[in-house]
Amino acid sequence: MEDLELLPGEVVNLRLERVGVFYGSTCGLDPQGGHGSLVVTNYQMSFNWGGKKPICVPHLNVTKLSKRDRATDKRSEDWDGGQGSAANPLTHKMGMLHLERRDATPMTIILFAASTLIDCINDELYPNPTRQCSKLFETLMSYVFPRSLTKVFAFSYRQQFEPETDGWKVYNPDDEFARQGVLAPNSGWRVSHVNHEYTACESYPRKVAVPAGIRDWEIKKALEFRANGRFPIMVWKSPRGESVICRSAQPLPGLFRMRNKEDERLVGLIRAANTSPAPLYIIDARPHTNAQANTVFRAAGYERGSYEKCEIVFLGIENIHAVRKSYTRLRELCTSPPADDDERWMQNVQETYWLQYISKLLQGSRRIAEFVMLERASVLIHCSDGWDRTPQISSLAQMMIDPFYRTLRGFEVVVEKEWCALGHKFSLRYAHGGSSDKQEAAPVIAQWADCIWQMMRQFPTAFEVNEELLLELIEMVHVCKFGTFLFNSECERRRAGVHKKTVSFWSHVNMNLDRYRNPHYVKYPGLIFPETSVRRLYVWEKLFFRDCTSLPPPQDHCPSIELESSASHISRQLTELNGSVEKLSKENAELRIQTDRDKMRIRELESRLRSLAGEAFSPHGSSHSAGLEMGQRQISAESLDSCYSPAGSRNGDLGNAREMWASPTGVLWSSETRGRSIFDLDESWHKAVRLRAEGMKIDGQIAELVCDVVDCVASQLGEALLPSANGEQRSSKAARSSESDSSEDQDEEGMYSSDSKPRVLARETSSDPFSENESTGGSAAETAMVEGEEGWMSKAAARGTNPLQDPFGLHPSENGNMEGGRRRRRGARVKDVPPGISLEAPLDETSAKWIPDQGVSQCFKCKRSFDFFNRRHHCRSCGRIFCSACSSQKSRISRMQIDKLVRVCLRCYTYLQRLESDLDP
Asked: Does the active-site annotation cover 310?
């Protein structure tokens, strides 16, 4: 058997071999467990079974313990090496212990007998299991139900910690009063020493904050009117205001409904310390019916008119008995095996009422926070005795209000102040020190921690504490490993010498801050108001679904798997982010280089356009002064640079997709080009910059927009040189065009031939109004779509039509041969549009080439991915697939004989509108 790694101060009292353990809710039916050895120490029992993770159960986590002896039955064969009664004629005995943990998980410990006659004779080697079972039972009884709290493991634990991590110094009332401004001269509050020797109230701390106008002898009179002498005291004050949160127990007017003027004066001074016109809200955490019952049976409650300018508010939070029953039912539900009615799971959870009780606590705490911070009012909280529901809602409200309590240090302070210093019945609620009163036990701390976990789910970055700290807090409250949660009050802990003889739980936390710190915490100075409806609450899985094997051995410095996983995840994200930054930097540098090249091309184009304008206008004198004036209106390099600069791109509007795509097309196909100036094309460069700012590949778009400039200039220059009724000059213009086309065949890349004759920049052609570079990549469906369009271009070229100027085959060809079609595929120009237009569409172009939407994952134009919100839409004209923004227009399509308005893309819409305007008589 492997040696158990013991804690400082832990001592082994008993070792047993040949032990079987069944655990879980299926004990006796389908056992889960194994056989191995059992080690019992003064802190826990540890079951080791064949290299698997040991089952460690602290003694004070056991709530039930019973013993039973019986003859070996058939089940023992499974744990006896397969030796049954046929192999062993002896009458075997075995001992059996049944225990139940606090999480409602039952366990059965079986001590097996010897398997051979020799083993039975050698009693020292294999003792009688019945005697072993009795010895184990007596040992466990002394630890599970200790006669006094001084017998628990906390007084034997001797872990050493650094002085700066001393948990007993976490909470200093003077420091907390100073932080809240209580010690200021005009705060209206003072620190009273009326309870210095715990003579006034044993469950209160030595230093309490009370209104400055109340005297100590009046406090002693007032505490007689409150249950257990727990008179109203201040526990939190707004550092920037006068609103406060106070705590107390319920008043006891007696059967004759007596009044206490000192208590009324104390409550009146609490209200008067706040100059806000809001009343003092007396928060009764109980349901109104329970408060009325206490009025009858305990002669407790408020008399009408006893407290002026006060308003009583009932929160309707159930008592510890209802909470205990709800907790037990939910535990049993979560640890039970899946049943046939598993579909009723949500209904079964609802019937436990656990989430409803959590909702009530959060609602009450949020209501208090709203009173204090929104109405600037003071509140006085109490329930029956003021040490169960009162610390719950008081501390939760302070966490919602004060961001300090959402930090690790602040969390330690609020637990020490609200639960330890101001009194809570730890011994009775968690059965410490042999307390057997089951009616007083209740999971109050677990319920409070569940509320914090619900807030952490809704505000994952608002709390510096993590889930592991909450779970360990619940565990340590029960197992008494530390002295922090021993006894019921500060007075009892001082008398028992807890600070000197035990270790604080916060010392353990401060030594392992990284383990309990939320790595996603972001300091947030504001308020948090969580959602309190039951529909927003969840069952805490790590609290209610844990079993024996999920609890690791209680080591003080064991690493946090969750934290390591989170840290490694963050490290991977940082590595990916650094790689992305480097990639973006490289792309940015390449973009700058490309931008510089584009600027040089623009300047070169500008100079050549100027020379083109000069050559064109020089032979014509004054008769062409209008054309000369138009030629002089060139695009300045400064305006192009400013429009193309990154700063200009950031200032551009990126949201108007319709305007973005319509403008370049409108320049090319518009019949109104005659009336436009070159300065109107400045907007096209803005559009190009916007496209680049959106991260789109616009190499093809740059070339397209440059073509827009050149085509418009060439069109305007040609029209300026063209007399209205001069057929000779029109033929001269056609001759120059064919000469330019022949030079394009020789030098396809450049804008000028070797003899410096001007010609128009060629455009990448496509079969429809879309002039996008198809080499940018895409899905297989898009590739097939492009291949189909190339075939369409070949057909159009064979017919002699220009696929770019006449994508739907409406214009007859000037030259029907193949050479003419090839020439038009290379050089598409506005001036090549023939004056005659035929309305007769070819037979194979009367319907759109419909692209199937299978495999198309993004919009053809803007490249946005399709999802639930960004849906696919077909253009009824070209058949491509677009998003709603890129296909938002509707138009008639005469070539398809569609007279009603149908959805088309922006490019087809522009083309169809221009076409209709040209066809209008």
From this structure: no
